[in-house]
Amino acid sequence: MFPDPSPTPSVLVVEDNALLAENYERWLAPTCAVTTVSTGERALDVVSDRTDVVFLDRRLPGQSGDAVLERIRERDIDVRVVMVTGVEPDFDILDMGFDDYLVKPVDRDDFVGTVERMTARAEFDDATREYYALSARKAALEAVKPDHELAANSEYTRIREQLTELRTDIDAAVDAFEPHDFDAAFHAIRTPGDD
Q1: Residue ranges of the domains in the chain?
Q2: How many separate helices (H) and strands (E) can be counted in the chain?
Q3: pTM of the model
Q4: What is the CATH number assigned to the segment(s) 10-189?
Q5: Across the 195 residues of the chain, what is the mean pLDDT of every consecutive 10-residue run?
């Protein structure tokens, strides 16, 4: 028997603003199994390898979202983490282990679409996931930093170089696929009606 091609994603929302947490849960409830918590400590109690996506506010009471992210990565939990925050990104994000960065306010379509992108990425290999995560950090900075600040930052330059190397590796891997291998590899992320 074949596994369910579209299992219900398990999503953890870590948000101390009760109204926002309620909105996020309402948006996701039709398609996801949603758990909401309001502190970093509680998030660390709840998150597990069965969690697919964590939406994590950077500013939380007690333990910050940055610290929670670091603890999740130290525990080697295979989960996509999306920072959802009012904090404009700065160069410190280049070393953070998140998969995407959303600046509040976030609308329903972006929020729900992010879950879809994150769960699709779970099917990719490590190099592809790293490429997308680095691309998210780069894009978050480019949205708020002037070109001269970006050009002067060595970590930003390093990220650009890493992206170029990863892109070359990914392209080489895709080129090595036989047509039937390529179809099989991406069959899981097709949507109904694509055929």
Answers
A1: 10-189
A2: 8, 5
A3: 0.70
A4: 3.40.50.2300
A5: 60 96 96 96 95 94 93 93 88 86 92 89 74 88 92 92 86 58 45 42
